[in-house]
């Protein structure tokens, strides 16, 4: 149905009049205009939401790594290639390596080697299958953990291979509900341990619950739970290290590498890796940044589809309004007036869709932030970019229909109508 638009003398049509006429034309076909804007709305909302969620993931990872302390380093066994391609990589670190780092590296303040594996933990008729960590007393200071009740592992526990255990907050809740587990005995696999402490709730770290762990003396873990698996000493899964201060991190990393190369008699590629908190955060940031960019690119396709929808509807509008165009040109409208008229209509559709899409996208980010641990920040850059792109798409995709309308011969247009 042809929109009925008042036709003033257009030989000198002002821009205000052009905008009013465009709004009148678009509101005459409300449903069609709304459906045309839908693609732009979805595109804008998707881009803003994906960028916000991606930045939230990066910020959450940064906050979690900062909770470790800026001075933390991690010594990992095997090469990076082995760890990324196989779960059965060479276990090259031993307890004696950790002792050597603590004694011979000047830039190091504390060292906490770990043996990690999963075991079934049982108390009476309750059980849970969770990670078990064999470690040393320095674990608390290196990893910034605290004990809520009882005590942590002591040097005496290590020397005597004592069968004592410290429960994570979640393990204590599962096995003992609200009861006091101190002094009770739990089974880790087939071995019985006395509970001497319960850890303070720590929360998740990169998606892993840190409260569902059980901590044992490293020597007890190696000798009575795992068994000796290396002829060179007590094999460990990872060695956590804290430098004396933030300025000492690089020195500690360099000194640890040199010491372990000497101890392992390495002349070629290292069979270990020393990572700082900054190194790991950079890796995580690269991954989350890449995912954010990929999701934003996918969402941006919706903007392209929306632009095609705008062009399609404007072409239909040109066909429907042939008589109006011929009449306006017959009474003095110039090609530039007709061109501007259709470009303004296309731009209004895209800009309105962009504004609505921005509101939807921002609302989505706020909902995600409220219902999840993600900070989910609002990105002003993403908003400006999405709205600017949507307006640009309306202008760009409106050019072809507008030029087609502007070049209609008034005589032919009136006859065709």
Automatic annotation (TrEMBL):
Membrane topology: Multi-pass membrane protein
UniProt keyword terms in alphabetical order: Cell membrane, Membrane, Transmembrane, Transmembrane helix
Top-level taxon: Bacteria
Presence of keyword Transmembrane: yes
Main location: membrane
Domain ABC3 transporter permease C-terminal, chain residue ranges per copy: 297-410
Extent of the signal sequence: none
Full protein name: ABC-type antimicrobial peptide transport system, permease component
Annotated source species: Rubidibacter lacunae KORDI 51-2
């Amino acid at each position: 149905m042809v929109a009925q638009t008042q036709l003033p003398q257009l030989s000198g049509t002002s821009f205000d009049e052009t905008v009013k006429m465009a709004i009148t034309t678009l509101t005459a076909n409300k449903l069609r205009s709304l459906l045309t804007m839908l693609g732009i709305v979805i595109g804008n909302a998707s881009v803003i939401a994906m960028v916000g969620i991606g930045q939230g993931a990066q910020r959450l990872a940064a906050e979690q790594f900062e909770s470790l302390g800026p001075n933390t380093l991690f010594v990992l066994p095997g090469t990076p290639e082995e760890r990324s391609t196989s779960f059965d990589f060479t276990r090259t670190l031993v307890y004696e390596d950790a002792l050597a780092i603590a004694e011979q590296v000047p830039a190091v303040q504390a060292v906490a080697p770990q043996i990690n594996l999963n075991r079934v933990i049982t108390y009476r008729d309750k059980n849970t299958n969770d990670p078990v960590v064999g470690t040393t007393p320095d674990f608390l200071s290196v990893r910034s953990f605290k004990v809520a009740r009882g005590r942590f592992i002591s040097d005496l526990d290590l020397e005597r291979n004592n069968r004592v255990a410290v429960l994570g907050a979640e393990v204590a809740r599962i096995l003992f509900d609200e009861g006091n587990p101190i002094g009770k005995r739990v089974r880790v696999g087939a071995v019985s341990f006395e509970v001497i402490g319960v850890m303070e709730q720590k929360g998740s770290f990169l998606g892993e619950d840190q409260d569902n762990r059980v901590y044992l003396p490293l020597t007890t873990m190696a000798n009575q739970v795992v068994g000796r698996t290396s002829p060179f000493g007590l094999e460990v899964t990872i060695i956590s290290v804290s430098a004396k201060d933030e300025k000492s991190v690089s020195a500690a990393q360099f000194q640890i590498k040199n010491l372990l190369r000497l101890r392992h008699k390495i002349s070629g590629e290292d069979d270990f890796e020393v990572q700082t908190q900054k190194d790991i955060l950079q890796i995580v940031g690269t991954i989350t940044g890449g995912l954010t960019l990929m999701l934003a690119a996918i969402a941006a396709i919706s903007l392209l589809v929306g632009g095609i929808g705008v062009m399609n509807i404007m072409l239909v509008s040109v066909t429907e309004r042939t008589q109006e165009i011929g009449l306006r040109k017959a009474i003095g409208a110039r090609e530039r007036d007709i061109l501007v008229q259709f470009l303004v209509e296309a731009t209004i559709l895209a800009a309105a869709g962009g504004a609505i899409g921005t509101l939807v996208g921002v609302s989505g980010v706020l909902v995600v932030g409220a219902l999840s641990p993600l900070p989910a920040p609002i990105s002003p850059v993403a908003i400006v970019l999405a709205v600017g792109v949507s307006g640009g798409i309306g202008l760009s995709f409106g050019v072809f229909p507008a030029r087609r309308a502007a070049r209609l011969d008034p005589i032919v247009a009136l006859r065709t109508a």
